[in-house]
Structures are given as structure tokens and as C-alpha cells.
Amino acid sequence: MARRRQLYEGKAKILFEGPEPGTLVQYFKDDATAGNGAKSGVITGKGVLNNRISEHLMLRLQEIGIPTHFIRRINMREQLVKEVEIIPLEVVIRNVAAGSISKRFNIPEGQRLPRPIVEFYYKNDELGDPLVSEDHIIAFGWACPHDLEDITGMSMRVNDFLCGLFSGIGIQLVDFKLEFGRCWEGEDMRIVLADEISPDNCRLWDLHTNEKLDKDRFRRDLGNVKEAYQEVARRMGILPEN
Ligand code: C5P
User: Fold this and answer.
1) CA 230 remoteness from chain centre
2) Atom of ligand 1 at shortest distance to CA of 202?
3) Is 139 within a domain?
4) Pair 89, 202 in one domain
5) Residue 240 — pLDDT band, cuts 50, 70, 90?
6) Beta-bridge partners for 206
7) d(CA 122, CA 2)
8) Measuring CA to CA, which residue among 176, 217, 164, 206 is closest to residue 94?
9) Among 9, 16, 107, 197, which one has the highest count of C-beta atoms within 10 angstroms of its own C-beta?
10) ipTM value of the model?
11) Given ligand 1 and candidates 105, 171, 201, 203, which is best to mutate, with the most ligand atoms within 8 Å of its CB?
């Protein structure tokens, strides 16, 4: 097959022009970065695992009525997705304190939060993705109040569903990051879940031992990164054969 035109290369994925108008091919790389590019490395096989894990989670979310950009997986490293206009926000949902919220408020990692907390970060590498308020988002026109309500509502539903899904396989969903996009169907616009959901953008801890099964193993040099991602895929019942 002729190589498709590359439209965008991010830290962990490449987007190519899709076979039909309004579609893109999302390619999962093995590259890993942390601290906004301060640390980088390659985790052999990560792209294959994340492609499978994200496919599985996007399909389960579609089944409960969450609109997503996912169309179908094409091969080990690629999936066909709808072309969307990415909203420049990283939406982080937290159930348990860890990472930046623990530092910001001096809360011990592992302490359950009084209720799930939704945070918004402005997606901008140069600025280091700063934390922003709903007022910033509306005033700067990144989303209108109605879109923001949609995004928050969907994020909470995704959280409820994923907490249940992961706890069923012995994993605690500590926190995760979502991205959303605008999808145009004729005159109609709707907000859909985009990007990926994988151990690259979730904190997943074993329910009993609190062992980290996510990208913190890379960020914090804990070793066995690929094995942790494989364990998540294995528990989800989707471990690729290779
Ligand atoms: O670093 P922090 O504690 O704010 O991260 C919260 C969650 O968001 C983590 O699950 C992390 O993997 C995810 N995240 C991400 N991409 C970023 C920042 C955070 O996927 N740029």
C-alpha cells in the first residue's frame, strides 16, 4: 500500500491522512517521553499494546453511548479514526491523589480524594501545559460553556465506567487524561472523545499491592515498563500474540 501523507507527529503517535475524506490513521509509536520531553526513551512493543488497549476501551465506551473518534483498528500499530478538530485541553480526572496534585497540595500519594476531581490543562508544549480554570477556557475561546459542560459530563461518565471496568480486573484507576475534538457531520458539530486511553495517560495501580502498571514506571525509572503494560492487556483479555 502506498505510504500515506503524514499530517502530524506527536511524542507517542503519528497521524496520517486516512483512506477516505474525514478519516485519519493514528499510528502508535514505541517512543516514550516524560516531563514535557525532558526525558525520552523507547519501550519496544509499547505502541502495539497501547493500540490494542485503547481500541478495547474506546469500543467499550462507545457501547455505553460515549461518542469517540475511533472507527476500527487496522493493524498492530494503526487505527482508523474520524478526523476531528482537537480542543486544546488536557482533561485530567483524578480519584486518588498522585503526581502533580500530590505536589501542589501536599497530599500523600495514594490518598483517596473526597470525590473525583476534574482539571483542565491548556495543551501547549511551549508553556508546559499550564493548569487553567473554566473561565480561562471560555474567555480565551478554547470552548464555549455548552461544550465545556459536555466535556465535563462525558469525562465523569468515562471515569465512572472505567473505574468499574478496571476494578473488575484488580486495578485501581488513580487518574487519567482525556482529549476531546469537534467532529462535523454536515452542519452539525458534536464533541467526541479523541486521542487514546492507555497506560501512557492513566495511572493504574494493582488493587491489592498498589504496584504501578503505567507510565510512572518509565517516568520514575522503576523498570519493567513493557511488562506492566502487558499485564494490563493480559488482565483485559487482549494480550497481543507477539
Ligand atoms: O502529572 P499529573 O499528575 O498531572 O498527571 C495526571 C494524569 O494525567 C496521569 O495519569 C498522567 O499520565 C496523565 N497525563 C498525560 N499527559 C500529560 C499530563 C498528564 O497523559 N501531558
Assistant:
1) 17
2) 10
3) yes
4) yes
5) low
6) 171
7) 36
8) 176
9) 197
10) 0.99
11) 201
